[in-house]
Design goal:
The protein is α+β, with helices and mostly antiparallel strands and about 350 residues long. The protein folds into two domains: about 260 residues, NADH Oxidase (3-Layer(aba) Sandwich); about 80 residues, no CATH class. Helices cover about 45% and strands about 15% of the residues. The protein has 15 helices and eleven strands. The strands form three sheets. Strands 3-4-2-1-11 form a five-stranded mixed β-sheet. Strands 5-8-10-9 form a four-stranded antiparallel β-sheet, with helices on both faces. Strands 6-7 form a two-stranded parallel sheet. A hairpin with a 4-residue loop joins strand 1 and strand 2. Helix 2 crosses helix 11 and helix 3 packs across helix 11. The radius of gyration is 19 Å and the shape is globular. Bound molecules: flavin mononucleotide. Flavin mononucleotide (FMN) binds next to helix 2 and strand 9. The site of flavin mononucleotide has 19 residues, from helix 2 and strand 9.
């Protein structure tokens, strides 16, 4: 299962009883500042469900799905999928499952039109809920909003702690753990990756990095990532809630695969979007500095204008897409062995 999860934390476990596949959630693996309210996990659940459905389409199987979502008792399934014989046409996006990946490098440009064409060629609808909208990467207000959101990394010690927990600093560690992400795919130059290793070991060094100009440096890198993209995308919901987040994940996964199929790279931009969703739904951490809380509270109006969203739509997940060469093999994220995540009863 190559479906994406935040930081590649892979918080899902699968039990097959011969008829139904039950998907449970492991909150210890999912623990993350950005997973407040289980929101990132629910988006990832949607990505995984979509991947399963694409695989089923090629086997002439339909999936009868029951979604419980979060809030259920620990260990109880979040989702059950029951395969049933069905006449289906293999979905063309299925072929992109093995090549889909997250690319944090600067891209090699492209136009909004290229991004629109990639979505259309992949059969990804952009109308209806969850909304999927694209904007120019050099929209000044959008750019300023995304860049200002980056401050969370430097001013909220818990966000960086939760992210660095999943960085794998040697190839041996990548191969041994088969989760998290390689330092080679952080999108940072090697020296900056080394600095993150020091911060993980000695968290107070974050303050030193802040004084030494770290925030300017990561802002500069993010600005380059944005500038080099063909488009910035946003998924939004009119009806926030568990089912909506899962649907947003499914929609995002189809877009991600459509870009991969068109040879275009993709990177989620969770900070400037999920924090907005978390602000609207009241789970943004209360100990986040007040100016950052106010920044995210201003998100629905600002992103609504940038992405031309309906007035009552709430942004959920943003991403950037653009042309790029394939990600080097050693930078790709691995997955836990099937026998560790799947059991049969
Ligand atoms: C809910 C969710 C949030 C994510 N947020 C980010 C993000 O903000 N920035 C980023 O670079 N990648 C983000 N990712 C991508 C994951 O880190 C990536 O999918 C995971 O490491 C596995 O790598 P792969 O996509 O190359 O298979 C996110 C993925 C999911 C499912």
């Amino acid at each position: 299962m190559t479906a994406p999860t935040g930081e590649n934390c892979q918080p899902f476990r699968f039990v097959w009883d011969g008829r139904v596949l039950a998907v449970t959630h492991d909150p210890a693996r999912a623990r993350h500042r950005l997973d407040a309210g289980d929101h990132a996990s629910l988006i990832a659940l949607g990505c995984m469900w979509e991947a399963m459905d694409l695989e089923a389409s090629a086997l002439d199987l339909g999936l009868i799905a029951t979604l419980a979502g979060s809030g259920v008792s620990p260990g109880k399934p979040w989702l059950t999928l029951e395969p049933t014989p069905a006449t289906r046409t293999a979905d063309p996006l299925r072929a992109a499952l093995p090549i889909r990946t997250t690319d944090r490098r600067p891209f090699q440009g492209g136009t909004l039109e290229d991004a629109r064409d990639a979505l259309s060629a992949g059969g990804v609808k952009r109308e209806g809920e969850p909304y999927l909208r694209l904007a120019e990467p050099d929209d000044p207000a959008l750019r300023a909003f995304v860049l200002a959101s980056d401050a969370v990394l430097w001013r909220d010690p818990w966000t960086i702690r939760d992210a660095l927990r999943w960085v794998r600093y040697t190839d041996a560690e990548v191969r041994r753990t088969r989760d998290g992400l390689s330092w080679r795919n952080l999108g940072y130059p090697p020296v900056a990756s080394l600095a993150t290793a020091l911060v993980r070991r000695l968290p107070p060094l974050l303050a030193l990095g802040r004084l030494a100009g770290g925030p300017l440096e990561t802002r500069r890198l993010l600005a380059r990532q944005l500038r080099s993209s063909a488009a910035i995308g946003c998924i939004a919901l009119r009806t926030p809630g568990q089912a909506g987040l899962v649907a947003a994940g499914r929609r995002a996964m189809r877009a991600w695969l459509a870009f991969a199929r068109a040879g275009m790279a993709f990177q989620p931009l969770s900070l400037p979007s999920l924090c907005v969703y978390n602000s609207v739904t009241g789970v943004l951490p209360r100990d986040l500095p007040a100016d950052l809380r106010a920044h995210f509270a201003s998100g629905p109006a600002l992103l609504g204008r940038a992405f031309d969203l309906p007035a009552d739509a709430v942004p959920v997940w943003m991403f950037r897409a653009g042309h790029n060469g394939p990600l080097p093999h050693e930078a790709r994220s691995l997955r836990l062995p099937l026998e560790d995540v799947l059991s049969a009863t």
